[in-house]
Known about the structure:
The protein is mainly alpha-helical. The protein is built from six helices and eight strands; from the N terminus they run βααββββααββααβ. It has helices spanning 10-23, 29-46, 75-91, 96-113, 142-159, 162-178, and strands spanning 7-8, 47-48, 53-54, 57-58, 72-73, 125-126, 140-141, 190-191. Strand 2 (47-48) and strand 3 form a beta hairpin. The N and C termini lie far apart (40 Å).
Amino acid sequence: ASTRPMKGLAIPMIMIVTAQELRKAVADPMLDDVISASIDEIERDFMKPEFKCLLETVAPDGSFIDQIDTRVVNPGHSIEAGWFILEEARHRNNDARLIALGCQIIDWSFAMGWDTVHGGLLYFKDCKGLPCAEYWHDMKFWWPHNEAIIASLYAYEMTGEQRYKDMHEQVHDWAYAYFPDKEHGEWFGYLHRDGSVSTRL
Length: 201
């Protein structure tokens, strides 16, 4: 049986942060090249202005695959990619193009992912607003909220725009209202859409 050729966002975004960490210890120009190529791939292939999102999966040439499992947006993952790019912008003396790119990804992803009914970030969305295949699509996981807390601070620090301060307060306040275990400390990892705890493990 044949399989559909595809590629995922995870590889270029993790290549960015891995090369950034290696660069702190090794002065190798190849690392800058890897970061630049990975950012270019994300912008060229995974950013879809027609849907205002960063897709998790595309065809090898970056084209859109209109199937239920390839229309997936993971807002937390996309927000994480956005602040990796902002970190690179900071390293490059506040590169204006990279700041704009990282902020655009964060803006789209937060707008698509924020639950306007219950608050918090939904785990998966369909880029066309159609149903998601994954049953946990409307749950609230801990880590996307951490990524959004970090990303909004980066964006505010680098642009000075009030809306990023507001975004930070919005996600921070929701996360700290629902994730902490008020009896034992630390956070619960997984919440239902309404913010109730899914599992106490």
